[in-house]
């Protein structure tokens, strides 16, 4: 259907025509995400929705390159050798590196002067693997880890409050409330998906993940504001002639190409970083990639559908203009 004075060409598609489908897709991701978050908060020792990495709990991670292809038996063998050497509760993972596999070992914090523990690790790896070579060491003390966790959570809360203040001044109440709901929608899915990854693949949350969450929030808000601003402007001048549903469909269609082109370009960059970048940033890039995709979807489909529902409940019905 075309709206002659609202736009000069036919709509690309009607978002509201399939509003139940968009809400179903959101529910399809929200329900498992919420369940995963609740489960993780119950079973994790720190009651966090994700397993906390050494950035927040303190500890030492040692990474060794090896001249062989690692499998589950190799990882189990390394752990058994470490325990036999007296290393307490080591977490062993294998990582596919650009030039060979990498074995990653997380253990309680090792002091710089504690050479005995390092010798135990070297001895265990020499028995279990072929020519292991230490390539990276990352240590965070327990006190610093707790402080970093506190500061990271404060950053997330302050960012959210700042967004609330900005949106409250930028839009009227209904627009602001739906924008905040869209942010919560995105956060639940992003954290929930990584909570599932944490359960299935033993993935940990570090400070880079917090950075990805904050960046994703900012991107989502920006994309949502672009769509909602167009809806508001069209509604200001055409509310007497067209129904709010017509205005939403036309506004989304007007901003669709801009939103998709921007997101597609960013997704291409993130995919290149994920497949060709370093192994240490893969989780960060994956979080960014998921945040961009969910943010784009929610600003176009979820947010516009919810906003139409809210506004049509409070506005008088308008007879639709003829095409």
Major sheet: order of its strands? 3-4-2-5
Q: Please estimate the helix content.
A: 55-70%
The rough form would be described as elongated
Rounded mean pLDDT score:
82
Query: How many structural domains in the coordinates?
Result: 2
Quote the distance from N terminus to C terminus: 6 Å
| H/E series | HEHEHEEHEHHEHHH
Q: What is the strand content? A: 5-15%
Instruction: Identify the CATH class of the largest domain.
Output: Mainly Alpha
- Here the CATH topology of the largest domain equals Multidrug efflux transporter AcrB transmembrane fold
Counting helices, strands and paired strands, the structural category is alpha+beta
Oligomer: single chain
The biggest sheet, with number of strands, parallel, antiparallel or mixed sense and barrel status, is: 4 strands, antiparallel
CATH architecture descriptor name of the largest domain: Up-down Bundle
Low-confidence stretches: 318-323
Q: C-alpha Rg, in Å?
A: 25 Å
């Amino acid at each position: 259907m075309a709206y002659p004075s609202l736009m000069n060409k036919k709509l690309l598609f009607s978002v509201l025509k399939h509003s139940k489908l968009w809400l179903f897709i959101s529910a399809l991701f929200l329900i498992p995400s919420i369940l995963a978050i609740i489960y993780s908060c119950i079973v994790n020792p720190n009651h966090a929705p994700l397993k906390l990495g050494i950035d927040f709990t303190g500890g030492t991670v040692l990474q060794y390159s090896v001249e062989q292809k690692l499998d589950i038996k190799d990882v189990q063998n390394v752990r058994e050798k470490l325990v036999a050497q007296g290393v307490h509760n080591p977490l062993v993972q294998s990582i596919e590196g650009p030039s060979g596999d990498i074995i990653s070992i997380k253990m309680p914090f090792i002091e710089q002067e504690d050479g005995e523990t390092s010798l135990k690790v070297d001895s265990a790896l020499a028995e279990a693997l072929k020519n292991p070579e230490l390539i990276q060491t990352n240590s965070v003390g327990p006190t610093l880890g707790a402080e970093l966790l506190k500061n990271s959570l404060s950053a997330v809360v302050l960012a959210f409050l700042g967004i609330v203040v900005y949106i409250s001044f930028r839009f009227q109440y209904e627009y602001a409330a739906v924008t905040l709901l869209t942010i919560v929608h995105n956060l639940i899915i992003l954290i929930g998906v990584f909570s599932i990854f944490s359960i299935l693949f033993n993935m940990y949350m570090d400070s880079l993940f917090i950075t990805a969450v904050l960046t994703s929030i900012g991107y989502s808000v920006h994309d949502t504001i672009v769509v909602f601003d167009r809806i508001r402007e069209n509604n200001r001048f055409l509310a007497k002639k067209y129904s709010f549903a017509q205005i939403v469909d036309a506004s989304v269609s007007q901003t669709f190409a801009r939103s998709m082109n921007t997101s597609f370009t960013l997704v291409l960059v993130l995919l290149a970083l994920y497949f060709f970048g370093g192994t240490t940033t893969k989780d960060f890039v994956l979080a960014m990639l998921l945040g961009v995709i969910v943010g784009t979807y929610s600003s176009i489909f979820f947010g516009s559908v919810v906003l139409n529902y809210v506004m049509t409940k409070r506005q008088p019905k308008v007879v639709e203009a003829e095409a």
